[in-house]
Every structure is written in C-alpha cells, then in structure tokens.
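Methods, example record. To illustrate the input and output format used throughout this study, we show the complete record for Tetraspanin-8. The sequence lines were provided to the predictor; the line carrying structure tokens was produced by it.
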Amino acid sequence: MVLGFLGCCGAVQESECMLLLFFIGLLAILLLQIVAGILGALFKPQIEETLDKTFAENAAKLSGSAQMDREFQAIFRKFEINAS
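The corresponding predicted structure is encoded as:
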C-alpha cells in the first residue's frame, strides 16, 4: 500500500523524490523475486525431500494410535473445521 501510495502521489504531484522511491521499491521487489526463484530452483531437491518427509510423518500421525498421535489428530480436526 505504501508503494502504491508513493506511485500515485508522486505522479499526481510530479514529485521526483516520490517517483524515485516508487521505482526503487519496485526494483527491490523484482530483485527479491528473482533471487527467490533462483534459490527455489537451486534447492528444489532439498525442498521436495523435506516436504515429502514432513507429509509422510504427518500421514503416519493421522493413522497412529499413540497419545501424541491422538493429540495431533484432534488438532488437525480443529484445523479442518476452521479452514472450511
């Protein structure tokens, strides 16, 4: 919102300072997205492995009968009810 405000007010008032801050903000966001994309591509195998491991552990907890598994199942049920 702040970035949009800078862009709108800078354009209306023809303020070079506001427009420069708007441009710098957009450039920073673009660079962060590029870096995130590169890091996501480089670490894709580790991310997939971690997600698979987490999903497998949680699936086992959903079908388990131990006390901790039952607590996890209750929390998961509450999450499902709140999410819908």
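Annotations derived from this record:
The chain has two domains: 1-42, 43-84.
Residues 16-42 form the longest helix (27 residues).
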